[in-house]
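cache lookup: miss for this entity combination. No prior model stored, computing from scratch. Input as submitted by user K.M.:
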Amino acid sequence: MSPTDVLMRQFRDIVLDRIGLVLPAYEDALIEHLLQERPQQRQLDTASYLSLLQSRTVVAEEEWRQLILDLTTGESYFFRDGGQMTLLREVLLPELIQRKKDSKTLRIWSAGCSTGEEPYSIAMLLDQLLPDRHGWHIVLIGSDINEQALEKARRGCYGAWSFRRMERVFMERYFVPDPPAEHAVHWRLTEPIRQMVTFRRLNLVHDLFPSELHDLHAMDMIVCRNVFIYFTSSTILNLAEKFTKTLSPGGILITGHAEMHGVVRPAELALRLFTASAIYQRLERPAVATTPSHQPPATVTPVVGPPPSRATPSRANNRHRQPALTVQPSGDGGTDVLAQAQQLFTTGRYQELIQLLEQYPAKKKSAQHYYWSARAHANSGHLAQAERDGHRALAMEPLSAPYHTLLAHIFHGQSRSVKTVETLKKALYLDGSYIPAYLALAELYRNEGDVQRSRRTYSSALELMAQLADTAQIEYHEEWRVRELQQQIEQLLANS
Ligand SMILES: C[S@@+](CC[C@H](N)C(=O)[O-])C[C@H]1O[C@@H](n2cnc3c(N)ncnc32)[C@H](O)[C@@H]1O
């Protein structure tokens, strides 16, 4: 192997670790070009450049952002794959709308959305299928690792190539020429459709999700098409597991054709076959898995639920090993209601949860009733009501780290970033062993590109998690067992 071959091999390995991309042989010319150009830009020789890529510095982070622009292919267009789009329009979205008609909430994620044509196509379909769309709370998120693609997606302005498969009726209804002219070469999405989609940068391979903080959880539908093709089967399996946990029970995963072919499916993901496409659906109840590695643990630790009533700071971690409900039976059905609330929350039935708690007499409500109500409201998009409930819980237990953390999640949803960080720090001041606050802070630092702080904060969380039972669960990360969550974080730290 020549020295150049060795460097190219190292480069391929580094890229695979960091963003999961397999660079095939036909990309040799691109790699050679990048290994000449990028080190020159940084005034480094190739070996030092490769060391830079593996370091954990701010410069390395900047370099990755640049490199990702060159390495990722953002080919996309509106209504790509007519068969799947018809399936969405005629079967899957109407089915979903019917299922959610009482709560009137829809949560959809286009993962690896490139320049945004995919989530905007879904937005247009929803606009057509929901005549009373404004009475619904719709969360439609597009994510990608390529920031340039996301910038274009946010602008919502496209050239003719993006419209190659779009019916004229959509063009006339949802686009205006830009600039206004008879022979315009660009068309801009109308504001109401553009505003339906929120875009965010996310590395599917290493970022942590489900994430309540970033609203990537309890999804009714995840569309991730033409992304897996660049990944190894072990990366795909890992991603399929993360996606499954990010779906609400009954939620749907749509990939490109045959992109999961040959990959062991997570036990909770059922295959549904249609003429146009195969899709996947998370079971309403956990399955008895066929593959041991994906089997739910034999003894299921109850989800760590509402925070215990504990006002004094301490370093005890036992809370995470304990059953969810730490309340004493009240003899008035209060505990039952909390158990039911927790059950409804875990199955994503927020509307029923809210109704249940509304019917419960206000005089008898504890901080934990308000806690569940706040989380259900937050996840249904009613952030003002969630904040009111969060404050009520905190007023009852002002020294509670969990209730501060609850409010921090709500502040984050309201884009109040300073208040979010302040409140999380307060939570940790009150209880320096409260893992969910560390995890939320670490996620925020990571998002801001503050690599060092994020790493330190994740490491603190890992140290505390090491003291917990493998099957324990942590608030806001209830889809994972502690051991699985640790593995995800360790992988993230190893590659960022
Ligand atoms: C071919 S595009 C697919 C766009 C759209 N889903 C479609 O089917 O038209 C693939 C996208 O996956 C993104 N991608 C590749 N690796 C990724 C990763 N590790 N995390 C997030 N996005 C990634 C690329 O940036 C690119 O925009």
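stored under new cache key. The domain at 82-282 is CATH 3.40.50.150 (Rossmann fold).
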